[in-house]
């Protein structure tokens, strides 16, 4: 993986997310160059400096978009607002829970993403899915070429520990499904995005409780084929997705971009400072995500986060992928997930190597080849197109 900060994986990971999710290398370099010395201090110190640099870059880009808008150049404005939304989101992602400006910059990120979608005429609309007495926010991307009265297969994309629906929609997934005749739904499920930040819905281990209402909503959607609903989990979605597919039989297939078979065990390893963390201030972050009052309470909740004894319930095609050099989640967990899919009628394991790229966690080092291979597999199962 390209490490802008050679001694700091966590900071470099955020930088790489920006570069592979719609960011511009010149803008990213301008924001990161003053931070090289701060990055040497480790993951947690200096994140306020990171915030200030990335917020300043996003503010400048937003001002340029305002100028475009004043001239009536809405397409140019939309592109800039969208990148500004990404940079605000990266700045927010790096802060500890309780950082005073965190909610404000997250809301600013949402606003700029929305302006980018509307002014840029993107194939993407925000939708709200009923969930108990509230809702789950999602982004709906329509299959290309869908005619009035037609129904298309759809892929439900599930966040990881620290990703958001906007971030994933700006990745290669924002277009690669639609081009193959598949619609896509990017969801902020409990513990992520709006569900966590605006509605205080923590993550839960029994992911079927939120997956079922999503499927209910899709079955009623006039553009969705209810018999062809697939699921894809990214990063910690490598736990959420298999669990959802195991207990929600209406999914026609499932796939994971990064296996996460025993996240419970990974936490004990991280406590020993082995392997890499995805975000700074890691223990504060996971306690916030799971609504835990302290670290002991978090470990009690995390005890349920494994797939042993679950995967034999899956009776639909399932794809497991992993990068061979994943420094966050060991490759062995991909093999454990694959081996336990004993009742899947078609199971496949793709390990991304140096030959095709995408060897790091969820292929963040090079998502293009890996992402297209996953999209091809899903299109094959759901009746999309590969040509």
User: In angstroms, what separates the terminal alpha carbons?
Assistant: 30 Å
Number of strands: 8
Indicate the percent of residues in helices. Answer: 40-55%
Sheet with the most strands? Answer: 8 strands, mixed
Strand content: 5-15%
What is the typical, i.e. mean, pLDDT? 97
The CATH first-level class of the largest domain comes to Alpha Beta
SS summary, helix count: 16
CA radius of gyration: 20 Å
Which fold does the CATH topology of the largest domain refer to?
Rossmann fold
Written description of the protein model:
The mean pLDDT is 97. The protein has helices spanning 9-20, 25-32, 36-39, 47-70, 74-93, 102-119, 165-169, 173-179, 193-197, 208-219, 237-247, 263-271, 282-289, 295-302, 332-339, 367-382; strands at 125-131, 134-141, 152-158, 183-187, 224-234, 253-257, 318-323, 347-352. The chain has an eight-stranded mixed β-sheet with strand order 1-2-4-3-5-6-7-8, with helices on both faces. Helix 15 links the parallel strand 7 (318-323) and strand 8 (347-352). It has 16 helices and eight strands. The protein has 387 residues and is of the alpha/beta class. It has two domains: 9-118, acylaminoacyl peptidase (de novo design (two linked rop proteins)); 124-382, Rossmann fold (3-Layer(aba) Sandwich), CATH 3.40.50. It is globular, with a radius of gyration of 20 Å.
